[in-house]
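Could you help me review a protein record that somebody else here produced? What it holds is a sequence and that sequence's fold in token form. I have pasted the whole thing underneath without changing anything:
=====
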Amino acid sequence: MNAHVKPYMFAAAAVAITLLLGACDSQPAATSGAALFKKKCSTCHSLEPGIHKVGPSLAGIMGREAGSTDFPKYRALKDAGFIWDQDKIAAWISDPKKFMGKPTAMTVKIKNEKDRHAIIKYLSGNHD
């Protein structure tokens, strides 16, 4: 062993490496579905059934017909003729105008695929 290296330095290095590796494996709070929903969606949408904001409640959206809640301000999605699933929600939140082929009231775009996946997982009831 090198005379300049103290045995406790190995232990300290091992602890530091373990902490760094653990930090790399965990997701920052801002990338959880709950945090992303709060940051990107909750200004306009609630997750409480029947409680609408600027946009409709998203409670139970998976498997629901688009535009089928009692939200009175539907325009683009009224009689849209499709059921919300993960692929449709991913396309919608990626670019609502492109998805509908016309401008919509929703202007937020979730471009990051991991963020979209986290939000969809959260909306599916897999709250993290």
Summary: Confidence is low (pLDDT under 50) at residues 8-29.
